[in-house]
Amino acid sequence: MLVSSSLGRYHPAAKKEAEKILSRACEIDSQKIHHTIPVHASAHGCALMAPSSLIRLHGFARERSAVCDTKWPGCTRQPVVLSCDACNFDLCNNCAELAKLDLATREQRKRVLIQQEERRRQLLLEQQLRREREREERELAEKRERLEFVNKLNATKASVKVPKGANKDKNKLLKYVVWSSDGYDNDGWHSYNGAPDKEFDSSFSSKADANARVNYLFYVKNCWGLGVDEMMTGEEIDEKETAGLLRLEVCPPDSTRWTVAAVTKEAFQFLDNARHGGGDSEDSEGEMDGDGVRYSYGAAW
């Protein structure tokens, strides 16, 4: 009664603060009944603590905002499981278990936890180092693979790099035909007038030469003018082989689909949108740098 009568003489802000303090005191008093879990006196001065899930702090669940106050080895900080409402003291599950032990046993347990944590950190470090080594080895292997492939492209014979004569004769096809196409898919965004034409590029008497031309045309003479290194490290390339004949295809985001393939001359006659009028008779060998990696005339995808 004295408290309530004195509140009237307070400044409004002070009155509000006093009411808050009074409300909190009542809240603490009403929650004493929940403090039933014993902890060792060396861990906390109050003999009993309460399950945090039963405790409110200014009307809100205490476990929502409270953090563990001990920071002992293995401490998780949150969520808290035991609280001393009057002391504003909280424990996470790890530290709550330690708090139930006597001082000597708790210190021994803390040393064990420190050793476990050190082993865990060491294991994580070893795993990280192993992942780094594996990544470096993988990148080195991929680099070697790219260089070997570039060297293979560099070693392509001249008649495959720059087909001429019978290899470019559209009216008298040799056994295996190499064709290419470049166009947008029906993605609902770009203009689409059907599948792109399959342009005749060249024809060869052997599968080996036809496949070599597919590789050279796809990587070196690609429709974007990209370097071989960019082609190999860009979007995933779909590579298929049917009856020993190669087909390569890639479709970067928001770009055209670039396809180069070899088929028999009989199959070429019946391909949808096949055109015999393609083929660049002025095909050049391209430019290679010291590592055998070409150029980059166009923008990468």
Q: Show unreliable segments.
A: 1-8, 278-282, 284-301
Counting copies of identical and different chains, the oligomeric state is single chain
Largest sheet: 6 strands, mixed
Q: What's the total number of strands?
A: 12
Strand content: 15-25%
Residue-averaged pLDDT, rounded?
Answer: 86
What does this structure look like?
It is a single chain. This protein is of the alpha+beta class and 301 residues long. The strands form three sheets. It has a six-stranded mixed beta sheet with strand order 9-10-11-7-8-12. The chain contains eight helices and twelve strands.
Set out the fold topology.
Layout: H1 2-7, H2 12-30, E1 37-38, E2 48-51, E3 56-57, E4 60-61, E5 80-84, E6 89-92, H3 93-99, H4 103-154, H5 158-161, E7 176-183, E8 198-204, H6 207-220, H7 228-233, E9 238-242, E10 245-250, E11 257-264, H8 265-269, E12 274-275
Give a short synopsis of this structure:
With 301 residues, the chain is of the alpha+beta class. It has helices at residues 2-7, 12-30, 93-99, 103-154, 158-161, 207-220, 228-233, 265-269, and strands at 37-38, 48-51, 56-57, 60-61, 80-84, 89-92, 176-183, 198-204, 238-242, 245-250, 257-264, 274-275.
Notable characteristics:
301 residues, alpha+beta, six-stranded mixed sheet, four-stranded antiparallel sheet, disordered N terminus, disordered C terminus
